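Training component of the fellowship. As part of building independent skills, the fellow (R.M.) carried out the full modelling exercise for a liganded target. The chosen ligand was adenosine-5'-triphosphate. The inputs are recorded below so that the supervisory panel can assess the work.
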Amino acid sequence: MANTLADIQTVLRIRPFRRLWTVLGLASFGDWLALFATAGFAQSLFDDPAAKGAAFSATIVLRLLPSLVLGPVAGVFADRFDRRKTMAACDTARFVLIASVPTVYLITNNTAVTVAWLAIAQVCIEGAVLIWSPAKEAAVPNLLPPEKYEAANQLSLATTYGLAPPLAFAVLAILERGQNVWANLGPWAEPMVIALYLTAAMFGILAVTVYFFIPQISGRYGQIAAKTSSVWNDFVEGWTYMRSRERVRGLILGMLGAFSGAGILIGVGTVYATTLDAGEAAFYILAVFLFLGLGAGIAFGPKLIGELSRLRWFGMSIVLAGVGLALDAVAPWLWVSLLGSVVIGLGAGMAFLAGITLLQRETEDEIRGRMFAFIAVSARVILMLAMTVSAPLAGWQAARQLDLGFTEVELSMSRILLFVAAALVAWLGVTAFKSMDDKPGVPVLADLWSSLRGRPLSAAVPVAGSGFFVVFEGGEGAGKSTQSVKLAAWLKLRGYEAVLTREPGATDIGMRIRTLVLDSGGDSAPGPRAEALLFAADRAQHVEKVVRPALERGAVVVSDRYIDSSIAYQGSGRDLGKDEVAWVSSWATGGLKPDLTVLLDVEPQAGLHRAKAGGTGDRLEQEELDYHERVRETFLHLAAADADRYLVLPAAGTPDEIAAAVREAVAQRLDIRTQTARTETGWPGLDSDKHDAKTPGDYGWSTVAEEAGRP
Ligand SMILES: Nc1ncnc2c1ncn2[C@@H]1O[C@H](COP(=O)(O)OP(=O)(O)OP(=O)(O)O)[C@@H](O)[C@H]1O
Ligand SMILES: Cc1cn([C@H]2C[C@H](O)[C@@H](COP(=O)(O)O)O2)c(=O)[nH]c1=O
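Fellow's submitted model of the complex:
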């Protein structure tokens, strides 16, 4: 899933997408150019500096207003009508509207009329953008296979936010600078007038391109009958769809959370910058770093996180943006603040990319336009609200100096607001993560860490049954076999289907592996890695053929050794790395974890003495004492790290004492009344009658392996 340059080249080889991408690039360029050219044009109509400033910001505010009115129904257009025609119509409208602004000025030469028309045109242009964007966003999935959405979005976002704005600014700068050269050509040659005509012409070309050269944008529309439901019904349908889909809701919530944080950041930005004592330019430097982070997140995020679940990545990225905001809120120095800004950008960029890609995948074609419109509109509204509320608040109350001991931080309202934004964004990130998590039970940080190293953890394959899985672990001669037999016998007596099994060797293949690993010596002995893989192969077969089926039947499975043995013997004993070995086993077992692991802790020397019983022992029992010490340490560490799942018992107790403690723990978990359990210890064959019983045969029954005719 991690995409590379090769993925981007692949999507660009798809002709309809390549054309759409070119259209998008030019449209974004045109949008930025139109926005700043109209604002600049409005400014140029006045001489008074205050009026100039007001004209500039009023033009931008006018662009945001239509979201409130047209927003709710903008997406309906994308889902209701042919998207190709919708886009072409919007481009034509933009062509006419943008060209009309300087034309009205040139014809009337009247500032009041021009300003009035400019205001109307601004609102209509934004209306066209609001309808055009969801249609384009919803069209992308019709041109590409789903696994290419991410690369396509990377390309589109990089174009919209990385390439188009600097190009637009460069063109405006060139026009401004060139003004002197063609100043005598008359009012139509003024820089902003040229910019507006240039932009208008571009939208004219785009309308023709979309209409005649990318028929694929029409997608399903060409194949289905025209819709007969009302626009209002379409809107309600979109809203109901969003509310009923948990993942879609999580996605939208997370994205809007990120936008509210961005709004607060922009709102408090200029005031906050003054608390850094870094001069006038601090705000702009912060903005540059924010965009650098944003670009890096979009460009390198997917490569960095590799195969990490995109649903998880989305929530994590939003939390990361929250961490960046918190860093900015407490930053005592400019460099910390710049770091915070990069982190915010990284998180926001990755969340944006993951969010759009997921939304394209999660929503059906006929509803997609409304989902994208909802996001676009809500984002604008939230941005505006957050900016307008936080900007005046930021300057409220004088700042105080907070002495941190090593330095002083200026505690101001802007920092408090940043902190509020950080908490809000992080909370929404966590909420989105929880509502969309596709790998429940897989530890988040371990999953992230493994993914960064190229080996994501898989979600556990669920067990469709109510069985219970108990494992005995411990060093050589700890008494595992003795205790597993006792426990299984007791469970059978209690009426449970108890399946007594072991590793290695519970299956046919397992038995052959056992011989290979334990009995081959000298040159024919497996090397450490082969040994680890052989144990994992035995385990995979064991889980698939014995453990899972039994758990699915509702049985209690009692296994003599499981994954921890590999982590301890191969991971630590052979020094292959505990995480690596655990990952291999986790993959082999589909993430099946025991409900209870009983660790019988034994001094290696004493255990080996018991296990060898005067003989030489198998290949692993012959290892140095050091090796067995490492094995013991690792067992103890594993148990300490997950105390609820483990029962650690010193193996020095008598077999009966240990058996009673084990029964108690199992009884508690199986919800058998301990009182009842205790009263039946007099069953012949358990405890006192058979102190040295350690094989099922001692109780007159057999293990899984023996039932299958194996020793
Ligand atoms: N609690 C105990 N105290 C003393 N001896 C015990 C105890 N439990 C088991 N034994 C004895 O120790 C020897 C090894 O026991 P067992 O085979 O149950 O250990 P194990 O952990 O399964 O060994 P291995 O790792 O070699 O499979 C046996 O002779 C058994 O009778
Ligand atoms: C499952 C498993 C086992 N081992 C080692 C541990 C023991 O030395 C033998 C098994 O012998 P036992 O008498 O049946 O206990 O194999 C290992 O190294 N790694 C494993 O994953």
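The panel noted the following from the submitted structure. The longest strand covers residues 468-474. Residues 476, 502-504, 518, 535, 561, 565-566, 569-570, 620-621 surround LXEULUCI (ligand 2) (CB under 6 Å).
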